[in-house]
Amino acid sequence: MIATFAETGFGLHNLPVGVYSLAADGPKQVTFALGSYVINLVALEKAGLFGSGFESIFDQPVANAYIALGKEAHKHVRAAVQQLFEDSCHPLQGMITEVLLPQTDVTLHLPLAIGDYTDFYSSEDHATNVGKMFRDPENALLPNWKHLPVGYHGRASSIVVSGTPIRRPMGQMFPKGAESPTFGPSRRMDFELEMAFVIGKDSQLGNPISTNDAEEYIFGLMVFNDWSARDIQQWEYVPLGPFLGKNFASSVSPWIVPLEVLDPCRIPGKVQHPPVFPYLQEQGNTHVAIDLEVELRTNSGESKVISTSNTQYLYWSMRQQLAHHTINGCNVRVGDLMASGTISGPTPDSFGSLLELSWGGQNPIDIAPNISRTFLEDGDTLLIRATAHTPFGPISFGEVKNTLVPAWPQI
User: Fold this and answer.
1) Is the dihedral of CA 134, 140, 144, 145 positive or negative?
2) Which architecture does CATH list for 117-405?
3) Measuring CA to CA, which of 85, 180, 234, 383 is 20 to 30 A from 307?
4) In angstroms, what CA-CA distances link 398 with 30, 71, 195, 206, 401?
5) Measured distance CA(311)–CA(291) in Å, rounded
6) Which of 329, 321, 239 is nearest to 282 (CA)?
7) Which of 109, 126, 324, 325 is catalytic?
8) Residue ranges covered by each domain of the chain
9) CATH of domain 2-108
């Protein structure tokens, strides 16, 4: 049974954190994924598996209280669960079958109360592609790009869990060749392939977090889709950046993989030139390698994997993102979410958005015979999956899967 769990990507070495309920509108509880099951951690806590100090921690609608306990407490809980399932003589072995609930029998929810959300712009290949399309093919990157992790503050209230329908947004646009702006539903709906990290520890206002200390504040990672209305975005983003073209929805997987689970996937980051300021300097294997896959399922039933990428292509690390975010004294809080920005690789099949894959709509993507896409159509479903590979077996982050539905009737 243990081997079977590992093969699913949700083995005992993973134990990602989520929130479930037995009925869609029923009471929610914090859980771990194990194989195709969720674990009833409330029952295990009441049976004394974790000892004192965990009362009511798992009987919560979000995982923030558990996350806030800190890394030593997380290690203790994970070790207790691992021992229970590995030790055939464990006193609580008899509970195993009753605390394992098939995921098909439960509803998974957004696992966090997200206070603040920041989106970065950390893939050089993506930033270069966008610069070539919209600015200067010879000088695609803006002057600041290699000096700091560019980011913006997004909208936390519209972050939803996998499975939530995404409504096509309405807004202003200035189509090519038009003489004045138009208003209506976006016609250039896009995804952005991203990963996000969850803040696991409060910091103090006025106190920056160094790259050396950054991982003390990072609990874990999630799959992230930053939905984008490109035509609304293009008209509005000068001079202050993304607004309505982004804040209508972002979506996440229901599982948070703890950062320490990914230690075997550590890799060095790219050589950064020009050299960065001291507060952004870091040493060692500062990045993680995670395989990423994007599948598009059309509204008529056809399906195709349209992109495969990897987090190794990111120029800026999570440590650098957090250090830059706080260098001015900005504080972070448990449950804050920080997304990587679109993750694109160096080849067309590794681009992380339809904007790049279709090169601004100029090159339609073949999905099936006589069916192609430049941007998403109503009824299309977008799936993003992430998997890391370790000596203990694959580490799955689950998937974020959402279907685009028509806009509200025009105002």
Assistant:
1) positive
2) Alpha-Beta Complex (3.90)
3) 234
4) 16, 22, 12, 36, 10
5) 7
6) 321
7) 126
8) 2-108, 117-405
9) 2.30.30.230
pLDDT tens string, the chain, 411 residues long: the values are 566 788 899 999 999 999 999 999 999 999 999 999 999 999 999 999 999 999 999 999 999 999 999 999 999 999 999 999 999 999 999 999 999 999 999 999 999 999 999 999 999 999 999 999 998 899 999 999 999 999 999 999 999 999 999 999 999 999 989 999 999 999 999 999 999 999 999 999 999 999 999 999 999 999 999 999 999 999 999 999 999 999 999 999 999 999 999 999 999 999 999 999 999 999 999 999 999 999 999 999 999 999 999 999 999 999 999 999 999 999 999 999 999 999 999 999 999 999 999 999 999 999 999 999 999 999 999 999 999 999 999 999 999 999 999 999 866
Residues 6+ apart with CB under 8 A from 86: 2, 12
The encoded tokens of residue 133 equal: 């399309």
% helix / strand / coil in the chain, to the nearest 5? 25, 30, 45
284 Ramachandran zone, left/alpha/beta (phi>0; psi -120 to 50) = left
Annotation marks residue 126 as catalytic: yes
